[in-house]
Amino acid sequence: MRRLAWLSAALALVIAYPLLFSTPFQQRLGALVLLYAIAASAWNIVGGYAGQVSVGHVVFFGCGAYAAMGAYTHFALSPMVGIPAGILFSVVIAAVVGVPTLRLSGHYFSMATIAVAELARLIVTNTDYLGAAVGMSGPTVPRNIFDLSFISALPYYYLFLAILIITLGITWWMTNSRIGFYLRAIKDSERAARSLGAPASRTKLYAYMLSAGLTSVAGALYAMMFGFVDPESGLGILISVKMLIMAALGGAGLLFGPLVGAAILVPLEEISNSLLGGKGAGLTFVVYGAIIVLIARFQPGGILALINRRLEKRRKAPETIVAAGASHAP
Amino acid sequence: MSFVIVQVIVGGLLLGAVYALFSSGLTLVWGMMNVVNFAHGDFVMLGMYVAYLVYSLLGAGPLIGAPLAMLVLATLGVVVYFSLIRDIMKGPMLAQILGTFGLALLLRYSVFWWFGANFLSLPENLVGGTLDLFGIRIQASRLLAGAVALVVTLGLHLLLTRTSLGSKMLAVAEDSTAAQLMGIRPDSMQAVAWAIAAGATGLAGALIATFFYIVPTVGETLAIVAFVTVSLGGFGSVPGALVAGLLIGVIESLSGYLIGAIYQDIVVYSLFLGFLWFRPQGLMGNS
């Protein structure tokens, strides 16, 4: 019950944010936090819950972004029409990568995902149909509302919020379903889970495909907001890095972990970029790298896991005292 | 025509020997501790920048640059082992991959921040121009790099199989508790393995720096090359890495020559994925 009250309070705050902080920079910042939270939450399904560290999730992000821009560039359709195509491509790629590698140890999966992402970037950079190195643009002047091309960040903010809620809803549903149950068992001990009859490879594959589809939606939204996609912004390895680090910092395998991570890192990056300009780009990723190393070394569960543990300790302590007192009562 | 093909193949073999050298570092650590170092390619990149600094500050070539790069990277390897790897090895898979991947970013973007994103290169005649061997023209720098890499990789194999140090490392890899009971300290052996692995990357980096482009993100490509080599050659196998490295060097050179330079990475990456599909245990593996 307390949890529900906290959640509704937090949701109210998130809904009110762009009205309370109404400068274009603040609204854009809010929209970006939500957008990265969607991508990182999608990564969390396979990276956090299934424990398979994908380092090439950007390939799905790129599928979505390129499908959205392609729908406009080649067919003069609304970029929205590209979303289902992006999801389809992503799920197929996930299956092709996942089927062989998810049977093996987690290292293979991580290596294969890097290779696929780089392969995709190289191929797209050399494919004229996809705009090669220049990329593709969306509608410069919105023809109607379905182009989802707005000057203000406000409509994007609420659009992203809705998609984030759907993403988290799907994640929550998954963790409480049979798949989520299997995933927890596999993460604890794959061998034990297998011997008890949990279809480990298949469950991991489903999680990967689900994660891929949702990531592609994030990519499509990104391309719509920025109005273009090129190999660096749609398929650069650093986008994978952002998803991974946001989820890991907030708490991989926790529902709100990626959102917390995004809420910390996106403002950090945007503010450091606006203060340092272009010179800051390298430095931002030095800091990112350092944060990842420190999380891995000292707090693999992320910030939320740390807070949860603290809360539990505090909650437990008085209970034991009460229980002890009760047993002494006559 | 046929002469050109031979020349391309020889060039591929020489480059492949360098691939084999740095990949044997990755395979050693992987086979011994079941840790994949995602920063491995960036270690090679650091070796390249050490060679570049040696040239730009002292005006010296690989004769000083290569041993120095080996030393610097070996030291870094030991530091990384004690400060990071030793702890994350025991942790969950997520921590392992995040730890070394974060290290990769840290190294890559520190160099990026310091040197900028520009392509650097060492002067072409640093190792003496081009040689003509029986009508095959080879850059002296490539010949030097390939020959040294081949000798060192074979030396590494002998070290692991013929010396008591090698046997101790093998014992730790096999069963670290049993090794400890026999009076071998797993901690020191693993630190030695990291020193060797990182030292090999430093040497390899300094060697290819004489003819390769030097850029902070080069480690990303080289890491994938190392992954391909190791998964092709089988884990923990230095001879496997040697054969696979040479093979990849030749395939890369041939595809670059036959279908165009921009496609050579595409061919290597596709090869890697193909192998994961059909033969994940590697060329020489047997299970």
Description:
The complex is a heterodimer of chains A (330) and B (287). With 330 residues, chain A is an all-alpha fold. Chain A is 77% helix and 1% strand. Chain A has helices at 2-20, 24-49, 58-75, 82-101, 106-125, 154-175, 178-188, 190-195, 200-226, 231-235, 237-250, 257-276, 280-298, 302-328; strands at residues 136-137, 228-229. A two-stranded antiparallel sheet of chain A has the order 1-2. The two termini of chain A are 32 Å apart. Residues 321-330 of chain A have low confidence and may be disordered. Chain B has helices at residues 2-33, 40-58, 62-88, 93-115, 140-162, 164-174, 176-181, 186-208, 218-233, 238-259, 264-278, and strands at 130-133, 136-139. In chain B, helix 2 packs across helix 8 and helix 10 (238-259) packs across helix 11 (264-278). Helix content of chain B is 76%, strand content 3%. At the A-B interface, helix 4, helix 5, helix 11 and helix 13 of A face helix 3, helix 4, helix 9 and helix 11 of B.
